[in-house]
Amino acid sequence: MMNFNLLKETFANFVRSHGMRRHFRRLAILDMFRSASMAKELSSSHAQILMQASHMPIESLLQHFGSRHEGLTEDEAEEILQRVGPNEVEHEKPLPWWWNLWNCYRNPFNLLLTLLATISYFTEDMKAAIVIAIMVILSTILRFVQETRSNKAAEKLKEMVSNTATVLRHELVEQEQYVDTMPRHPNGLNGLNRFEIPIKRLVPGDMILLSAGDMIPADVRILSAKDLFVSQAAMTGESMPVEKFATDQGEKTSNPLELDNLCFMGTNVVSGSASAIVVATGNQTYFGALAERVTANSREETAFQTGVNKVSWLLIRFMLVMTPIVFLLNGFTKGDWFEAFLFALSIAVGLTPEMLPVIVTSTLAKGAVILSRKKVIVKRLDAIQNFGAMDVLCTDKTGTLTQDKIFLARHTDVFGKESDTVLEYAYLNSYYQTGLKNLLDVAVLEHAEVHRELEVATAFRKVDEIPFDFTRRRMSVVVAEHDSNHLLICKGAAEEILSICNKVQDGDKVEPLTTELLARIQAVTADLNEEGLRVVAVAAKELPPEKEVYGLGDESDLILIGYIAFLDPPKESTAPALKALKAHGVDVKILTGDNELVTAKICREVGLPVAGMLLGAQVENMGDAELAQRVETTTVFAKLSPAHKERIVRVLHDKGHVVGFMGDGINDAPALRAADIGISVDTAVDIAKEAADIILLEKSLMVLEEGVLEGRKTFANMLKYIKMTASSNFGNVFSVLVASAFLPFLPMLPMQLLVQNLLYDLSQISIPFDNVDQEFLDKPQHWNPADLGRFMVFFGPISSVFDVTTFALLWFVFGANVPEHQTLFQSGWFIEGLLSQTLIVHMIRTRKIPFLQSRAAWPLLGMTLSIMALGILLPMSSLAPYFKFQALPLMYFPCLLMVLFGYAVLTQAMKGWYARRYGWQ
Fold it and tell me: In three state form, how does the secondary structure of 753-821 look?
């Protein structure tokens, strides 16, 4: 039975990897999809095409699609693209603007405010209905504008990291489009023109080439394959990769997923290579058919998403509890139940944090745009928070600590003497291999003089290939020289090659591999490793020309020829980047499949302390409890398999760390998925980019450090709004309850409360652009919603103390103690309430003394000052009668100044005490 949860994950991950819209509705998969009738319906429309493609003879299949072995011409491909459309599933396509606008509107806060506006309208309180409507429109438009800008920026950036497919084209086009910079001869495809094109431009009939690390870009029929293993667990639930062939090897079946010569969009190549013809694209793929019935966000809800939801519902529950209390209290004490109802309605509006979605979206979008300027592309907006919270970064060595500019430094025999023979064998192996693309092969192939000396193009013919995989850590090619005996040439990790050798070549002699020789050989490779060289061993053996197909069993009884050693120098920027990350609370751990001696030398050169080292074999033999202890004190993990990397990341996560993993190879994909934040680069293999949350346009720890700081700034500004809103609302309710219990009139009219809330909302819209104190950036910041309740309890009542002080001033000093003078009282509290709420923006945004030790950014400072000025002028202006305000006596303002000063002093004192006791986040 199909694994539906994995299918959901694959669909949304595939969506992200193609740069599609990231805000998806979480829907359950329709139950009827599991039924036989739905499966039958799917077969009749999509599966039948795949079944026919599987069973057709190759020539008939090519004729059916109007294609040929050499591929389509550019004009043919363009004509088909215009007819069938781009290779995108329906949910990839950008939503129309009006649907985006609807999505921006339909959050719980706006829906609640709409309900309150509707009630106000039907109770003939038109002023309140208009003000609430303005608040909803403001919230919706601001969010819509921010999301539109963010999506447009993402669309531009998407082109930088979009996945591509290797296709064959029948005729020459612009030379710049060629994939290869030097001659390569894939199986049966000699002399053909290979090009990289965006996946969305693939069309039925396209001939494509696949190798390890590639995502399957469409539904395809395999035409030729060599040890092709494909992971299709998300489609079938099979945990192990499935081998695919050019012809179906299994029994007759009506399920396309069980056919051996078909591969499906959304799966990926684990090892091997193949050529294939595209038979279906976009919604016509098996994947696309399922996607029409499934809309999913594959990732589990992150801690940040959970926290925001908890805060939202906490504030909504608080509003739902307090509003009836205010209604009943005013109804019983004032006797006017209708007026009490309108007042309670206004309190409900005031307690609704309608700007929360706007602030969150604006802050994340702004953070993503700023990160893009720093060469960091965010695929998933809420990953920014994890970026800032990251306290452990696991990364590979190559290209991160080093320059990723590998060159061949040495080619020696088994005893370390320079040897051209080793280089010749290595060149033939790299020249004819068509599997996993490797920088080491590129470095070998730069020695073009070998190509001329050996007359490779005419003297040799490729017979077969045994592709690389991360279990064997080696690969072999079989060639025939002038169609004589076959020569199997194998290269790979030194210890893996030694395990299949029983002889060594010493000059013109071949000797048995004895224990004494093995010790000498290991000493030679160790010396090379200690020089910082990455050692690859080369072995070979002659075989009779009796067969054309070779397998793993032929990799035995080889003769060790020698070594090729590569140098990848450390980057100059690595040492200061490591120091900066450490200063900001991020521990760097190296997880590499490379040799431990090479890794240790590089770490020493860049100043990364090797506090402990674990090898893959040791990790394999450890239980989770022991590994959990060792990972805390170990900084370098070497000779790791992909499973080891994933396990280490999971153990660190289970220990309470927020773990980032940076990788770019197929062997990094499991760890990228397991990490809290997966980081890859735009030059990574498809499956690594698909698994990542963040894409770096520059593989550098310095760029990463800048991204971490921006993530922390983004999180800090979101947290400011949440803390301000929660504490302010909590204090306001206290003040309203006190006033409602003791005043013979309403402390503020419903319309006045709504205007005050609208102005307060406007004062906060520039929070995403605020500065962040340096100490907040110095250490990882974790989301902890449980702290919010405590923060509300400590800081909310402070404003109530000074609200009550204002009530007393207005009652006893200014005589606003009878219903006839209620407008004076309401005007006075309106100004004090608005100014104190606006002041709290500056008080809570920093642990320091505001304005003196920490100053807000100019947009926030300008907005809050403007709102304060507007709030003071409104009761004094010609608009005052419309809102039932009156001008306040001049003596009120010195008193107000003292009240606000006392509020600021007490809040600052509470901040100091609170920070010492509970910390300040």
Answer: HHHHHHHHHHHHCCHHHCCCCHHHHCCCCCCCCHHHHHHHHHHHHHHHHHHHHHHHHHHHHCCCCCHHH
pLDDT of 525 = 92
**Do the beta carbons of residue 617 and residue 639 sit within 8 Å?**
yes
Exposed, middle or buried: residue 889 (CB in 10 Å: 0-12, 13-18, 19+)?
exposed
User: What region does 815 belong to: left with phi over 0, alpha with psi -120 to 50, or beta?
Assistant: left
Query: 């959970």: which residue's tokens?
Result: 306
Query: DSSP secondary structure string, 214-226?
Result: PBP-SEEEEEEEE
Regarding predicted confidence, which is higher, 300 or 359?
Answer: 359
Residue entry with tokens 């060792």: 630
Catalytic residue among 206, 227, 260, 396: 396
Give the pLDDT confidence score for residue 94 in this predicted structure.
Answer: 62
The encoded tokens of residue 641 equal: 């398999």
Residue 437 φ then ψ, to 5°: -70, 135
Give the pLDDT of residue 238.
Answer: 59
| Helix, strand and coil in the chain, % to nearest 5 | 55, 15, 30
- The answer to whether residues 13 and 300 touch, using CB atoms and an 8 Å cutoff, is no
Specify the DSSP class assigned to residue 849: -
500: tokens are 């299949």
Q: Determine the pLDDT at residue 301.
A: 56
Q: Which residue has the tokens 């809102």?
A: 883
Sort strands 677-681 and 694-696 into parallel, antiparallel or unpaired. Answer: parallel
Instruction: Compute the distance between CA of residue 441 and CA of residue 460 in angstroms, rounded to an integer.
Output: 18
Residue-wise pLDDT for 346-401, tens only, equals 788 777 777 777 788 788 878 888 888 887 888 777 788 788 889 999 988 776 77
**pLDDT value for 157:** 57
> Do 703 and 684 touch, CB atoms closer than 8 A?
no
Residue 825, CA distances (Å) to 654, 775, 816, 829, 837 in order:
57, 42, 5, 6, 18
pLDDT of residue 235: 65
Q: Which residues pair with 560 in a beta bridge?
A: 504, 539
Residue from 268, 324, 405 nearest 699 by CA: 405
Sheet holding 392-395, edge to edge: 376-378, 694-696, 677-681, 659-662, 392-395, 587-591, 636-638, 613-615
Residues 260 and 247: beta-carbon distance below 8 Å: yes
Closest CA to 665 of 399, 405, 475: 399
User: How many contiguous H segments (helices) and E segments (strands) does the chain have?
Assistant: 34, 23
The tokens 């521990």 sit on which residue? 587
Mean pLDDT of the chain: 81
pLDDT for the residue 236 = 61
Ranges 107-121, 410-424, 673-687, most confident: 410-424
User: How do 207-211 and 164-169 pair as beta strands?
Assistant: antiparallel
Query: DSSP strand E in 414-473: where?
Result: 460-466
CB 173 within 8 A of CB 195: yes
Which residues are bridge partners to 696 per DSSP?
376, 681
Helix, coil or strand: residue 745: coil
For residue 469, is pLDDT > 70?
yes
Cα separation of 315 and 108, whole Å? 11
Distance separating alpha carbons of residues 886 and 415, to the nearest angstrom: 98
Using CA atoms in the order 906, 909, 910, 913, what is the torsion angle rounded to 10 degrees? -160
Distant-in-sequence, close-in-space partners of 703: CB < 8 Å, separation ≥ 6: 374, 375, 376, 696, 697
676 is catalytic: no
Paired with 570 in beta bridges are 402
**Res 84 pLDDT > 80:** yes
Q: Look up tokens 């012809």; give the residue.
A: 247
Given a cut of 90, whether residue 834 has pLDDT beyond it is yes
> Residue 92 and residue 274: Cα distance in Å, rounded?
27
The closest of 464, 537, 471, 92 to 270, measured between CA atoms, is 471
Q: How far is CA 666 from CA 399, 639, 690, in A?
A: 15, 16, 11
